[in-house]
Amino acid sequence: MDLLENVVGMVVVEVEVPPAVAVLLGVAGRRSRHHLPHTLPHGAPGAALSAPFLPQALNELALGSPSLVVLPLDVTDAGSIGAAAGQVQEELRGAGLGLLINNTGARRRSTLETETAENMALLYATNTVGPLQVTQAFLPLLREAAEAGRGQGLSCSRAAVVNVSSAMGSIGVAAAWGDAQDISYRCSKAALNMLTKCQALQYGDSGILCVAIDPGCVEPAPGRESGPVTMEESTQGVLRVLAGLSASSNGTFWDWRGQRLPW
Amino acid sequence: MDLLENVVGMVVVEVEVPPAVAVLLGVAGRRSRHHLPHTLPHGAPGAALSAPFLPQALNELALGSPSLVVLPLDVTDAGSIGAAAGQVQEELRGAGLGLLINNTGARRRSTLETETAENMALLYATNTVGPLQVTQAFLPLLREAAEAGRGQGLSCSRAAVVNVSSAMGSIGVAAAWGDAQDISYRCSKAALNMLTKCQALQYGDSGILCVAIDPGCVEPAPGRESGPVTMEESTQGVLRVLAGLSASSNGTFWDWRGQRLPW
Where in the sequence is the signal peptide annotated (chains A, B) (predicted)? Predict the structure, then answer.
């Protein structure tokens, strides 16, 4: 059973510069329809570029917000990632990329008994390897933004990579174990957290802040109208956390309420 | 560059029953030649079964220790895993399996800049998905040992899964970052640690203890005779840690010195 299957997602770039430009990835899931308008740090008029296969809601959003550029992206395909990064670079016309939010994600229902090598590989490719390769491709643009903000400390308004993780990927917390074992999902998110730590160690000195964040679960359980967290609470919470990050937050893991999560 | 490439490893079963039987997996690397005689919990005479493609040292060991049964195993191949589990079951003649040590591992040199999707997938398959599927296959035998020890608390002499991890896979410690970024290795071991936690949550109630352990680095750096840890220190340390584990250790992460590691 697929919960959030959005390997083929979108890049949404807010091209109003300054201030910093935001990229969101993998926004073809149900969650993203709602998250999208809120999660971009700035409101944003401009000029929109839509692709024919976009979900209706994303198309509408792009048409209504002319500063948004929407591009196709498959985070499991290096060619697609490279093409998207090239297009973003063109759109930015020499400006840097201030914020990369790796929001692509897939999830499968499983237990220790039913988990398969196939699902493990699929979710790792999407949830862990995807953010690795996307960040590699967008790194030159992030470096430009960091360089432009030279002299400032680390922050999301200078240059940052935000990896969207989950409390289910916290080994210490192992959230919601009784509700969903989902081994492939948990393992891929723990690995994403490790990637985040590595990125923080490597890129922090270049002025790029790297963190993992759990946006909370906005998916309603079967028969429910809303998830444990409302979309509004989640998106406002994430924005508040991002705004408060500084050098001492580099390489850390937060939830949408602003609580530090253990690895 | 391959450091420890032993996808096609071996199962080594000590068939002296009682006490508990041990299985080691993936022992084709340099490290295992030395680790093997020490790591098995019991000394062991008996009857040996060797495969033609075994490394010389393993063959010699098997011939010299008649209670050891050596079987081929590819932890990335479900058919191979199932066949090995079936053969172990036959060898055990109705007895359970007291200790499963998931010791298979691969490592590649990489940095954040050079890491590839191919290496990420390969190391995840070997270091994370392998232990998942091996444990799934051997679970009935582990359950038998746990059941035979009903009334006892959790321990490695009742029934246990030991996943061989690394301090390099501790997100909190991120050991040896300055020496080796090795992203694919670190991410696969962090995911293995998550798997260990999931196994502990699920199997602990059935009497099976599950832990992750860092045996220390016994690989010499280029130009050096020995690693930071000697083989003797590592193997004796690991055995001491395993002997001291109890119910409160379920789902934890240790190094060979007996120090708890953070996730």
Answer: none
